[in-house]
Amino acid sequence: MALLDIARDTRVPKREKGVCDRIDVGVKFVSVMIDERMWKRYSAKLPDSEALKVFREVIDYITEKLKTRIDDTDVWREGVAFFSRDKEFLTVEVTTKGLRIHFYPSAGALFNDQEKFSVERVNLWRSSYHKASGKYRAMTVWVSKETHLPAIKKLIDMIPASR
Questions:
Q1: Domain extent for 75
Q2: How big is the CA angle at 159 (ends 10 and 103), to the nearest 5 degrees?
Q3: Taking a C-beta distance cutoff of 8 angstroms, is the pair 138, 126 a contact?
């Protein structure tokens, strides 16, 4: 069983499958549990081992950078969803061509349509246009190569760590 745990405290409690634990030990503990069956499904669906490595690194980076923001996670057959205050704010979806990462308006990030990111494809959600700032509150990006990691990390860094 593959288990991605991010915490400063090394005490790891017993977990149930697919459950994100919240433990009050002075630091916030975020766990994304992906069982062996799901890893096999993801690796069979992704185009190559590089895309699987990118998936692991993206999940690790999200859980580390946004651990104070994440209240819950949902591991499902198509990917991993991250929640804050009962709202989904970020989803990493596994596809046959790579990863599709959705940044929802509830993430609190603002994206400039003039900014270029080194990823396969970017889709700004036109319905999320914020008139006051002239930016967009939601977008989807497609990634599959390790060369895309700096750009996706930059996008993840745009999400406020606390809400």
A1: 39-157
A2: 105
A3: no
Question: CA-CA distance, 144 to 141, in Å (whole number)?
Answer: 10
Q: Are 142 and 120 in contact (CB under 8 A)?
A: yes
Q: pTM of the predicted model, to two decimals?
A: 0.80
Q: Give whole-number Cα distances, 87 to 42, 48, 72, 163, in Å.
A: 24, 32, 9, 11
Q: Using one digit for the tens of pLDDT, what is the confidence trace for 64-119? A: 999 999 999 999 999 999 999 999 999 999 999 999 999 999 999 999 999 999 99
CB count in 10 Å sphere of residue 106: 18
CATH of the domain at 109: 3.90.1150
46-60 tens-digit pLDDT: 999 999 999 999 999
Q: How many domains would you assign to the chain?
A: 1
> 3-class DSSP state for residue 28?
coil
